[in-house]
Amino acid sequence: MISTGSVVDYAEKVRQLVKPERYEHILRVAELAAQIAKANALDEGKAYLAAILHDAARDLSGERLQELAPPENEIERNHPLALHGRAGRRLAQEWGVEDEEVLEAIEGHVYGVSPDHKIGMALYIADVSEPGRGVNHEIREMALSGRLEEAYQKAVICKVRYLQQKGITPHPRTWAAYQALQQSRDAG
After folding, report:
1. pLDDT tens-digit profile, the chain (188 residues)
2. Domain containing 21: what range?
């Protein structure tokens, strides 16, 4: 069980690292992730904690991101912001978070997670569909109605299509998540 005091402490650490607008986004994502978790019979505390921590590294310099999460490929070398999920995981670990499910969700919110990672799915969906973004309402409603896997699949497909339309090569981990979803859909 995650204590409320520790979540408050983590939230304060994050608040000190990010811009005020980013912190407001983080709070909206945390509330939505907990709601999605509840609607899908998942651990609300884990979803909330992962969401509070998901963008902890988002406003760090490219240099600091690369220190926390050394680039693994060309995309990460050219676009250090792609590292903020892995860097956020590292910060969370440094702050004492040990729950692997929470850590994987933090890292995976940028790239996507495997189809069996439910807390990661809840966070990914909450991040792309929180009301402040003004987009992906149908994905949010799908997840809140207990259709987590379907909402996650739609969210990843939308992200890949968006990147392709912009002429941006998706991150290899995003491709892997996309392909895993395609395979699970074809198998089902």
Report:
1. 455 568 999 999 999 999 999 999 999 999 999 999 999 999 999 999 999 999 999 999 999 999 999 999 999 999 999 999 999 999 999 999 999 999 999 999 999 998 889 999 999 999 999 999 999 999 999 999 999 999 999 999 999 988 899 998 899 999 999 988 887 767 65
2. 4-187
With 0-12 / 13-18 / 19 or more C-beta atoms within 10 angstroms meaning exposed / middle / buried, residue 19 is: exposed
Task: Measure the CA–CA gap between 182 and 176, rounded to whole angstroms.
Answer: 10
- Reading the block at residue 10, the tokens are 């983590």
| Residue 83 structure tokens | 């590292």
How many CA atoms within 13 Å lie on the side-chain side of 98? 3
Q: CATH number for the domain including 31?
A: 1.10.3210.10
Residues in the chain: 188
Total domains, the chain: 1
Residue with tokens 């969210």: 155
What angle do helix axes 44-53 and 4-17 make, rounded to 10 degrees?
20
